Fold this protein.
Amino acid sequence: MSRHWLVFASTAVLFVAGGVSHSQEKPKWVGTWAASPMLADGRWMRPVTNSTLREIVHISNGGAQVRLRFTNEFGIDPLTISNAHVALSAGGPDIKTGTDHAVMFGGAASIRIPPGGVIYSDPVDFSVAPLSDLAVTFFVPAQNMRAETAHLAADQDNFVADGDQTSAVSLTEPKMAMSWYFFDGIDVPAVDGARAIVTLGDSITDGTASTRNANLRWPNILAARLKQEHGLENVAVLDEGIGGNRVLNEQSGPSALSRFDRDVLGQSGVKYLIILEGINDIGRLSNTRFLAPEDDITAQNLELALTQLAERAHEHGIKVFAATLTPYGGAGYFSEKGEQVRKDYNNWIRSSSVFDGVIDFEKITSDPANPDRFNPEYDSGDHLHPKDTGYKAMGGGIDLKLFK
Protein backbone atom coordinates (compact mmCIF):
# COMPACT_ATOMS: atom_id res chain seq x y z
CA MET A 1 0.00 0.00 0.00
CA SER A 2 1.32 3.45 -0.78
CA ARG A 3 1.71 6.58 1.31
CA HIS A 4 2.37 9.94 -0.29
CA TRP A 5 3.59 13.08 1.48
CA LEU A 6 4.04 16.57 0.18
CA VAL A 7 5.91 18.91 2.50
CA PHE A 8 6.47 22.58 1.79
CA ALA A 9 8.27 24.66 4.43
CA SER A 10 6.08 24.47 7.55
CA THR A 11 3.02 23.03 5.82
CA ALA A 12 2.44 19.28 5.42
CA VAL A 13 -0.28 17.71 3.31
CA LEU A 14 -0.77 13.97 3.85
CA PHE A 15 -2.57 11.44 1.66
CA VAL A 16 -2.77 8.01 3.27
CA ALA A 17 -3.93 4.69 1.90
CA GLY A 18 -4.61 1.88 4.32
CA GLY A 19 -1.72 -0.42 5.20
CA VAL A 20 -1.49 -4.16 5.62
CA SER A 21 -2.69 -5.36 9.01
CA HIS A 22 -0.37 -7.63 10.98
CA SER A 23 -1.79 -10.19 13.39
CA GLN A 24 -0.29 -10.19 16.88
CA GLU A 25 -0.27 -13.98 16.92
CA LYS A 26 3.10 -15.71 17.01
CA PRO A 27 4.73 -15.27 13.60
CA LYS A 28 5.65 -18.29 11.52
CA TRP A 29 8.73 -16.59 10.07
CA VAL A 30 11.07 -13.87 11.25
CA GLY A 31 13.42 -11.81 9.12
CA THR A 32 17.11 -12.49 9.65
CA TRP A 33 18.54 -10.21 6.93
CA ALA A 34 17.05 -7.44 4.80
CA ALA A 35 18.09 -4.54 2.59
CA SER A 36 15.96 -1.72 1.28
CA PRO A 37 15.49 -1.84 -2.51
CA MET A 38 15.82 1.18 -4.76
CA LEU A 39 16.18 1.97 -8.45
CA ALA A 40 19.65 1.13 -9.76
CA ASP A 41 21.36 3.93 -11.63
CA GLY A 42 24.48 4.62 -13.65
CA ARG A 43 26.70 5.30 -10.61
CA TRP A 44 27.09 1.57 -10.06
CA MET A 45 27.92 -1.41 -12.22
CA ARG A 46 24.69 -2.84 -13.55
CA PRO A 47 24.38 -6.59 -14.06
CA VAL A 48 23.78 -7.80 -17.59
CA THR A 49 21.40 -10.54 -18.63
CA ASN A 50 22.64 -14.07 -19.26
CA SER A 51 24.65 -13.72 -16.04
CA THR A 52 25.05 -15.38 -12.67
CA LEU A 53 24.82 -13.18 -9.58
CA ARG A 54 26.37 -14.30 -6.30
CA GLU A 55 25.41 -12.02 -3.43
CA ILE A 56 26.86 -12.25 0.08
CA VAL A 57 24.83 -11.41 3.19
CA HIS A 58 25.40 -11.53 6.94
CA ILE A 59 22.37 -12.89 8.80
CA SER A 60 21.42 -12.26 12.43
CA ASN A 61 19.19 -15.18 13.56
CA GLY A 62 19.92 -18.79 12.69
CA GLY A 63 17.40 -21.49 11.89
CA ALA A 64 16.68 -24.93 10.48
CA GLN A 65 15.28 -23.47 7.24
CA VAL A 66 15.57 -20.32 5.17
CA ARG A 67 13.32 -18.66 2.63
CA LEU A 68 14.58 -15.98 0.27
CA ARG A 69 12.81 -12.84 -0.97
CA PHE A 70 13.43 -11.62 -4.51
CA THR A 71 12.23 -8.26 -5.79
CA ASN A 72 11.36 -6.48 -9.01
CA GLU A 73 10.11 -3.45 -7.08
CA PHE A 74 11.48 -0.84 -9.50
CA GLY A 75 11.45 -2.90 -12.68
CA ILE A 76 9.27 -1.87 -15.60
CA ASP A 77 9.52 -5.26 -17.28
CA PRO A 78 8.83 -8.72 -15.86
CA LEU A 79 11.94 -10.22 -14.25
CA THR A 80 12.81 -13.89 -14.72
CA ILE A 81 15.36 -15.55 -12.44
CA SER A 82 16.23 -19.23 -12.36
CA ASN A 83 18.45 -21.84 -10.74
CA ALA A 84 18.71 -20.05 -7.43
CA HIS A 85 20.97 -21.51 -4.74
CA VAL A 86 21.91 -20.71 -1.16
CA ALA A 87 25.11 -21.82 0.57
CA LEU A 88 27.62 -20.79 3.20
CA SER A 89 30.05 -18.21 1.90
CA ALA A 90 33.71 -19.21 1.80
CA GLY A 91 34.76 -15.61 1.27
CA GLY A 92 35.05 -13.74 -2.02
CA PRO A 93 33.15 -15.37 -4.89
CA ASP A 94 33.42 -18.91 -3.45
CA ILE A 95 31.02 -21.07 -1.44
CA LYS A 96 31.85 -23.77 1.09
CA THR A 97 31.88 -27.20 -0.52
CA GLY A 98 28.97 -29.38 0.54
CA THR A 99 26.73 -26.53 1.71
CA ASP A 100 24.99 -25.68 -1.58
CA HIS A 101 21.19 -25.98 -1.62
CA ALA A 102 18.87 -25.46 -4.58
CA VAL A 103 16.05 -22.95 -4.12
CA MET A 104 12.61 -23.57 -5.65
CA PHE A 105 9.52 -21.45 -6.28
CA GLY A 106 6.34 -23.46 -5.96
CA GLY A 107 8.42 -26.49 -6.85
CA ALA A 108 9.83 -24.87 -10.00
CA ALA A 109 13.42 -23.76 -10.60
CA SER A 110 12.42 -20.55 -12.39
CA ILE A 111 10.14 -17.66 -11.44
CA ARG A 112 8.77 -14.65 -13.31
CA ILE A 113 8.26 -11.59 -11.10
CA PRO A 114 5.98 -8.84 -12.46
CA PRO A 115 7.00 -5.18 -12.38
CA GLY A 116 6.67 -3.90 -8.82
CA GLY A 117 6.41 -7.42 -7.45
CA VAL A 118 8.20 -9.52 -4.83
CA ILE A 119 8.30 -13.28 -4.40
CA TYR A 120 9.32 -15.59 -1.57
CA SER A 121 11.01 -18.87 -2.35
CA ASP A 122 9.86 -22.20 -1.02
CA PRO A 123 11.39 -23.03 2.38
CA VAL A 124 14.84 -24.57 2.04
CA ASP A 125 15.96 -27.19 4.57
CA PHE A 126 19.29 -25.60 5.37
CA SER A 127 20.49 -25.24 8.96
CA VAL A 128 22.28 -21.92 9.43
CA ALA A 129 23.97 -20.55 12.52
CA PRO A 130 23.38 -17.03 13.85
CA LEU A 131 25.68 -14.36 12.40
CA SER A 132 26.59 -16.55 9.40
CA ASP A 133 27.66 -15.29 5.99
CA LEU A 134 25.47 -16.76 3.26
CA ALA A 135 25.95 -16.72 -0.50
CA VAL A 136 22.79 -16.44 -2.59
CA THR A 137 23.41 -17.32 -6.24
CA PHE A 138 20.94 -17.10 -9.13
CA PHE A 139 20.88 -16.86 -12.91
CA VAL A 140 19.38 -13.93 -14.82
CA PRO A 141 18.62 -15.25 -18.33
CA ALA A 142 18.51 -13.09 -21.45
CA GLN A 143 15.46 -10.82 -21.26
CA ASN A 144 14.30 -7.24 -21.75
CA MET A 145 15.44 -5.20 -18.75
CA ARG A 146 15.04 -1.42 -18.83
CA ALA A 147 15.31 -0.81 -15.08
CA GLU A 148 16.87 -2.80 -12.26
CA THR A 149 16.07 -3.03 -8.56
CA ALA A 150 19.05 -2.99 -6.20
CA HIS A 151 20.34 -1.90 -2.85
CA LEU A 152 23.19 0.38 -3.86
CA ALA A 153 26.49 0.76 -1.99
CA ALA A 154 26.14 -2.41 0.04
CA ASP A 155 29.62 -2.17 1.65
CA GLN A 156 29.85 -5.81 0.62
CA ASP A 157 31.58 -7.44 -2.34
CA ASN A 158 29.13 -9.29 -4.58
CA PHE A 159 29.86 -10.95 -7.88
CA VAL A 160 28.61 -11.23 -11.46
CA ALA A 161 29.81 -13.93 -13.87
CA ASP A 162 28.94 -14.81 -17.48
CA GLY A 163 26.44 -17.57 -18.19
CA ASP A 164 24.82 -19.97 -15.74
CA GLN A 165 27.41 -20.79 -13.08
CA THR A 166 24.93 -21.14 -10.23
CA SER A 167 26.19 -24.57 -9.11
CA ALA A 168 29.88 -23.63 -9.16
CA VAL A 169 31.86 -23.61 -5.93
CA SER A 170 34.12 -20.98 -7.49
CA LEU A 171 32.86 -18.59 -10.14
CA THR A 172 34.88 -18.31 -13.34
CA GLU A 173 36.16 -14.79 -14.07
CA PRO A 174 33.68 -12.98 -11.83
CA LYS A 175 33.35 -9.22 -11.83
CA MET A 176 32.79 -7.22 -8.68
CA ALA A 177 29.34 -5.79 -7.96
CA MET A 178 29.05 -3.21 -5.20
CA SER A 179 25.31 -3.66 -4.66
CA TRP A 180 22.70 -6.32 -3.92
CA TYR A 181 20.52 -6.83 -7.00
CA PHE A 182 16.98 -8.28 -7.20
CA PHE A 183 17.27 -9.78 -3.70
CA ASP A 184 16.27 -8.08 -0.45
CA GLY A 185 15.47 -10.52 2.34
CA ILE A 186 15.96 -13.81 4.15
CA ASP A 187 13.61 -15.28 6.74
CA VAL A 188 14.07 -18.17 9.17
CA PRO A 189 11.40 -20.03 11.16
CA ALA A 190 10.20 -18.11 14.21
CA VAL A 191 11.13 -20.10 17.31
CA ASP A 192 10.09 -19.10 20.85
CA GLY A 193 11.08 -15.51 21.52
CA ALA A 194 11.86 -14.76 17.88
CA ARG A 195 11.15 -11.20 16.80
CA ALA A 196 12.81 -8.57 14.65
CA ILE A 197 14.09 -5.03 15.06
CA VAL A 198 13.94 -2.87 11.93
CA THR A 199 16.50 -0.05 11.78
CA LEU A 200 15.16 2.63 9.43
CA GLY A 201 17.74 5.18 8.41
CA ASP A 202 20.19 6.73 5.98
CA SER A 203 23.89 6.12 5.24
CA ILE A 204 24.79 6.09 8.93
CA THR A 205 22.50 3.09 9.38
CA ASP A 206 23.63 1.63 6.04
CA GLY A 207 27.23 1.65 7.28
CA THR A 208 28.96 4.17 5.00
CA ALA A 209 32.68 4.52 5.86
CA SER A 210 32.75 1.26 7.82
CA THR A 211 35.24 -1.41 6.77
CA ARG A 212 34.02 -3.17 3.64
CA ASN A 213 32.96 -6.82 4.03
CA ALA A 214 33.45 -6.66 7.81
CA ASN A 215 29.80 -6.18 8.89
CA LEU A 216 30.63 -3.41 11.36
CA ARG A 217 27.55 -1.23 10.79
CA TRP A 218 25.88 -0.26 14.05
CA PRO A 219 22.93 -2.63 13.38
CA ASN A 220 25.49 -5.46 13.00
CA ILE A 221 27.02 -4.53 16.35
CA LEU A 222 23.57 -4.54 17.94
CA ALA A 223 22.75 -7.94 16.41
CA ALA A 224 25.95 -9.48 17.78
CA ARG A 225 25.25 -8.10 21.27
CA LEU A 226 21.73 -9.52 21.27
CA LYS A 227 23.12 -13.02 20.61
CA GLN A 228 25.09 -12.74 23.87
CA GLU A 229 22.17 -11.51 25.99
CA HIS A 230 20.08 -14.09 27.83
CA GLY A 231 16.48 -13.96 26.64
CA LEU A 232 17.31 -11.90 23.54
CA GLU A 233 19.20 -14.55 21.56
CA ASN A 234 16.37 -14.85 19.05
CA VAL A 235 15.92 -11.13 18.36
CA ALA A 236 16.99 -10.31 14.80
CA VAL A 237 18.11 -6.97 13.36
CA LEU A 238 17.06 -5.89 9.86
CA ASP A 239 19.06 -3.01 8.37
CA GLU A 240 16.82 -0.79 6.23
CA GLY A 241 19.27 2.07 5.79
CA ILE A 242 19.76 3.83 2.45
CA GLY A 243 22.67 6.16 1.78
CA GLY A 244 21.47 9.73 1.21
CA ASN A 245 17.94 8.91 2.34
CA ARG A 246 15.61 11.60 3.61
CA VAL A 247 12.45 11.57 5.70
CA LEU A 248 10.34 14.03 3.77
CA ASN A 249 11.38 14.07 0.13
CA GLU A 250 13.01 11.83 -2.44
CA GLN A 251 16.76 12.02 -2.94
CA SER A 252 18.54 8.69 -2.74
CA GLY A 253 15.93 5.98 -2.86
CA PRO A 254 12.34 6.42 -1.72
CA SER A 255 11.87 8.67 1.30
CA ALA A 256 11.32 7.13 4.73
CA LEU A 257 7.68 8.11 4.45
CA SER A 258 7.10 6.47 1.10
CA ARG A 259 8.97 3.23 1.88
CA PHE A 260 7.63 2.71 5.40
CA ASP A 261 4.97 0.12 4.59
CA ARG A 262 7.39 -2.02 2.59
CA ASP A 263 10.56 -1.65 4.64
CA VAL A 264 9.00 -1.75 8.10
CA LEU A 265 5.47 -3.14 8.13
CA GLY A 266 6.24 -5.62 5.35
CA GLN A 267 9.07 -7.36 7.25
CA SER A 268 8.46 -10.74 8.85
CA GLY A 269 8.10 -10.86 12.63
CA VAL A 270 8.90 -7.19 13.24
CA LYS A 271 8.27 -6.09 16.83
CA TYR A 272 10.55 -3.05 17.22
CA LEU A 273 11.53 -0.06 15.09
CA ILE A 274 14.54 2.23 15.52
CA ILE A 275 14.36 5.43 13.44
CA LEU A 276 17.54 7.42 12.73
CA GLU A 277 16.64 9.80 9.88
CA GLY A 278 16.67 13.49 9.10
CA ILE A 279 20.26 14.65 8.67
CA ASN A 280 19.97 14.63 4.86
CA ASP A 281 16.77 16.70 5.06
CA ILE A 282 18.64 19.17 7.23
CA GLY A 283 21.69 19.15 4.96
CA ARG A 284 19.62 20.63 2.14
CA LEU A 285 19.33 23.84 4.16
CA SER A 286 22.98 24.65 3.40
CA ASN A 287 22.15 25.28 -0.26
CA THR A 288 20.48 28.65 0.26
CA ARG A 289 20.98 29.78 -3.33
CA PHE A 290 19.24 26.84 -4.96
CA LEU A 291 16.97 25.69 -2.13
CA ALA A 292 13.74 24.26 -3.51
CA PRO A 293 10.55 25.22 -1.64
CA GLU A 294 9.91 21.63 -0.55
CA ASP A 295 13.44 21.40 0.89
CA ASP A 296 13.07 24.44 3.18
CA ILE A 297 12.11 22.18 6.07
CA THR A 298 11.73 22.91 9.77
CA ALA A 299 12.09 20.80 12.87
CA GLN A 300 8.30 20.75 13.05
CA ASN A 301 8.10 19.11 9.62
CA LEU A 302 10.36 16.29 10.80
CA GLU A 303 8.48 15.99 14.08
CA LEU A 304 5.15 15.61 12.30
CA ALA A 305 6.59 12.99 9.98
CA LEU A 306 8.06 10.89 12.80
CA THR A 307 4.85 11.18 14.78
CA GLN A 308 2.94 9.77 11.82
CA LEU A 309 5.41 6.89 11.43
CA ALA A 310 5.28 6.08 15.14
CA GLU A 311 1.49 6.06 15.12
CA ARG A 312 1.43 3.77 12.07
CA ALA A 313 3.87 1.39 13.73
CA HIS A 314 1.87 1.38 16.96
CA GLU A 315 -1.25 0.43 15.02
CA HIS A 316 0.62 -2.75 14.06
CA GLY A 317 1.86 -3.54 17.55
CA ILE A 318 5.42 -2.32 16.90
CA LYS A 319 7.34 -0.44 19.58
CA VAL A 320 9.16 2.63 18.28
CA PHE A 321 12.49 4.01 19.48
CA ALA A 322 13.65 7.34 18.08
CA ALA A 323 17.36 8.05 17.80
CA THR A 324 18.81 11.52 18.07
CA LEU A 325 20.79 12.77 15.07
CA THR A 326 24.56 12.55 15.36
CA PRO A 327 26.67 15.75 15.06
CA TYR A 328 27.63 17.06 11.63
CA GLY A 329 29.70 20.15 12.38
CA GLY A 330 32.36 20.50 9.70
CA ALA A 331 30.50 18.32 7.18
CA GLY A 332 30.23 19.52 3.60
CA TYR A 333 26.58 20.46 3.92
CA PHE A 334 26.71 21.94 7.44
CA SER A 335 24.89 25.22 8.03
CA GLU A 336 23.96 27.19 11.13
CA LYS A 337 20.32 27.06 10.08
CA GLY A 338 20.49 23.28 9.73
CA GLU A 339 22.28 22.93 13.05
CA GLN A 340 19.48 24.78 14.82
CA VAL A 341 16.94 22.46 13.21
CA ARG A 342 19.00 19.45 14.32
CA LYS A 343 19.14 20.69 17.91
CA ASP A 344 15.43 21.46 18.02
CA TYR A 345 14.60 18.09 16.49
CA ASN A 346 16.84 16.21 18.94
CA ASN A 347 15.37 18.08 21.90
CA TRP A 348 11.89 17.16 20.72
CA ILE A 349 12.86 13.48 20.40
CA ARG A 350 14.17 13.46 23.97
CA SER A 351 11.10 15.17 25.44
CA SER A 352 8.33 13.74 23.27
CA SER A 353 5.80 11.20 24.54
CA VAL A 354 5.35 9.87 20.99
CA PHE A 355 7.96 7.11 21.28
CA ASP A 356 8.43 4.05 23.44
CA GLY A 357 12.03 5.03 24.12
CA VAL A 358 14.93 7.18 22.97
CA ILE A 359 18.42 6.17 21.82
CA ASP A 360 20.71 9.15 22.28
CA PHE A 361 23.24 8.67 19.48
CA GLU A 362 24.17 12.36 19.66
CA LYS A 363 25.32 11.94 23.26
CA ILE A 364 27.22 8.74 22.40
CA THR A 365 29.13 10.16 19.43
CA SER A 366 29.69 13.86 20.08
CA ASP A 367 32.99 15.45 21.07
CA PRO A 368 32.75 16.41 24.77
CA ALA A 369 34.88 19.48 24.04
CA ASN A 370 32.82 20.50 20.99
CA PRO A 371 29.36 18.88 21.08
CA ASP A 372 28.43 20.07 17.58
CA ARG A 373 31.11 17.77 16.13
CA PHE A 374 31.87 14.06 16.14
CA ASN A 375 34.25 12.75 18.76
CA PRO A 376 37.56 12.58 16.83
CA GLU A 377 37.93 8.95 17.93
CA TYR A 378 34.72 8.12 16.06
CA ASP A 379 34.90 10.46 13.04
CA SER A 380 35.59 8.86 9.64
CA GLY A 381 37.10 12.15 8.50
CA ASP A 382 34.13 13.62 6.66
CA HIS A 383 32.59 14.87 9.94
CA LEU A 384 29.30 13.20 9.00
CA HIS A 385 29.84 9.42 9.07
CA PRO A 386 31.37 7.40 11.89
CA LYS A 387 34.28 5.05 11.32
CA ASP A 388 34.34 1.53 12.78
CA THR A 389 34.97 2.72 16.33
CA GLY A 390 32.04 5.12 16.03
CA TYR A 391 29.68 2.44 14.76
CA LYS A 392 30.84 0.17 17.58
CA ALA A 393 30.07 2.90 20.11
CA MET A 394 26.61 3.43 18.62
CA GLY A 395 25.66 -0.24 18.52
CA GLY A 396 27.27 -0.82 21.89
CA GLY A 397 25.52 2.13 23.52
CA ILE A 398 21.95 0.93 22.96
CA ASP A 399 20.24 -0.25 26.15
CA LEU A 400 19.19 -3.85 25.48
CA LYS A 401 16.43 -3.54 28.09
CA LEU A 402 14.43 -1.76 25.38
CA PHE A 403 13.85 -5.15 23.74
CA LYS A 404 12.83 -7.14 26.81
